[in-house]
Write a structure and sequence with these properties.
The structure is a single chain. About 70% of the residues lie in helices and about 0% in strands. By secondary structure, the chain is an all-alpha fold. It folds into 2 domains: about 1-30; about 30-125, no CATH class. Helix 2 crosses helix 3 (about 60-75) and helix 3 (about 60-75) packs antiparallel against helix 4.
Length: about 140
């Protein structure tokens, strides 16, 4: 039993060390597409938390955003995460679709205020504002 505990502790330590290395490497990425992609999912998680608590967000949009957040957190993926470059692609697509849906349901200024990353990224994802939403 002790051997299993040691092996489990070693596996957990290796996992935490690999996460720390990935975070360090992601922060050292030069500005550009790869850096934007590395920051996209963490920024989306922060946005989901903020929008979930906002009373101006309709229930349907909260549900779509919550489902996207659960998808990202779920260990089940259409494309395994360990595949380089394309691994997180299914997470990005699901989150992007949920945010596009929320973009049609939630006032644009609420979405922009909830986004922690660069504004140009969320604006590109949401597209041009519709005449019914405006920016005021």
């Amino acid at each position: 039993m002790r051997d299993w505990a040691v092996a489990l502790a070693g596996a957990v330590a290796l996992l935490v060390a690999s996460w720390a290395l990935l975070i360090l490497l992601a922060r050292r990425l030069p500005p550009g597409l790869l850096r934007d992609l590395a920051a996209f999912v963490p920024d989306c998680v922060t946005m989901v938390r903020r929008l979930r608590r906002d009373p101006r967000v309709p229930r349907r949009a909260k549900l779509a955003i919550l489902l996207a957040g659960l998808w990202v957190a779920s260990p089940v993926d259409l494309i395994p995460e360990f595949l380089p470059v394309i691994g997180p692609l299914d997470d990005i697509v699901v989150v992007a679709l949920a945010l596009r849906y929320a973009g049609r349901q939630v006032p644009r200024d609420v979405l922009l205020a909830a986004w922690p990353g660069e504004t140009r990224l969320i604006e590109r994802l949401l597209g041009t504002p519709s005449a019914s939403q405006g920016t005021a």
